[in-house]
Write a structure and sequence with these properties.
This protein is of the alpha/beta class. Helices cover 45% and strands 23% of the residues. It contains 13 helices and 13 strands.
């Protein structure tokens, strides 16, 4: 077993996984998995730069993670940065800050690399389930982008498109610096049109219609699962590999896009950092299910973090 630490820094959150991995058996023993909402992508779509307060929130989380990695004695560390830091003019400031704190340079990976990590993390366990039809379509709905990957045991095609819960919220639901509460039908229609255009782009590379099993990753999808399951709090063990129907996703979408901030915040499984962006996130998921004809989505708690861990094990 090799003890590794993988860090995934996205547009909305930064996450850490410390695990013991055995590539020979495919066994991954999780020692610590945690997530912090840092909203690194705050305003990037509008300004093209990482905001100073967003950088400081991210660096504070890095300092916390550095202490955990040291305590658990991980032999190898890999830090992967995604959409927000790909887009930012001042990404060098971000890179230097991470290097100073963690001693490793963040790898600003491409959307295709991000998708491959997500696919590996999500399907490593599922390939043993013979009853699941292939190919898999893995969708990772992040803050700034969504990754689409089709494959059986390995990736066949992948594409990253610039729709995510934070980007769609900032682009369509923010008026004069404030999130509309709740959004009006015109705002929702404009957001939906943007998502459909992105799906057209994804379909140019990824054969969406060929997918037989839809696997959904990341906070928007897991939060929808927690809402559908009526959990009293966020319980990863209940959410992982749960199956959520199209009708349930549609009902949650309607509920989130008509609820007030206070009503969304009162949902037990809702992380405070997702209250204002969950409506956009579930709308992306709904549009994907309608485009592919998926009757259900298998929700995975294992995603790009697990893929990063396997890449260095």
């Amino acid at each position: 077993m090799t003890r590794v630490a993988g860090i995934d820094c996205g547009t909305n959150s930064i996450r850490l996984l410390v695990a013991d991995c055995d590539p020979a058996t495919g066994e991954l023993v999780e020692l610590d998995r945690r997530m912090t909402i840092v909203r690194l992508g705050q305003g990037v779509d509008r300004t093209g730069r990482l905001a100073p307060e967003a950088l400081e929130r991210t660096f504070a989380a890095c300092r916390e993670y550095a202490a955990v990695i040291k305590e658990l004695g991980a032999e190898r560390v890999r830090f992967v940065a995604t959409s927000a830091s790909r887009d930012a003019e001042n990404r060098d400031e971000f890179v230097q800050g991470v290097l100073d704190i963690l001693g490793v340079e963040p790898e600003v990976i491409s959307g295709d690399q991000e998708a491959e990590f997500s696919f590996t993390g999500a399907t490593r366990e599922l390939v043993a389930h013979d009853h699941l039809e292939r190919p898999f379509l893995v969708v990772d709905i992040g803050g700034g982008s969504t990754e689409f990957v089709v494959g059986e045991d390995h990736v066949r095609a992948a594409r990253s498109v610039d729709v995510g819960c934070v980007r769609m919220t900032e682009r369509h639901l923010v008026v004069d610096g404030v999130v509309t509460d709740p959004p009006d039908p015109e705002q929702i229609a404009a957001m939906r049109a943007d998502i459909e255009t992105a799906l057209d782009l994804a379909a140019e590379t990824v054969p969406l219609a060929e997918a037989r099993t839809l696997v959904g990753l990341a906070g928007s999808v897991t939060t929808v699962a927690g809402i559908v399951l009526g959990l009293p709090e966020y319980l990863s063990s209940e959410i992982h590999h749960s199956r959520i129907s199209y009708e349930q996703v549609r009902e949650v979408s309607e509920r989130m896009l008509t609820a007030t901030h206070a009503e969304r915040a009162a949902i037990p499984v809702m992380h405070p950092g997702r209250v204002d962006v969950i409506g956009a996130g579930v709308l992306v998921l709904l549009a994907i299910m309608e485009r592919t004809g998926a009757t259900e989505v298998i929700v995975s708690e294992h995603d790009i973090l697990d893929g990063i861990a396997w890449s260095i094990a």
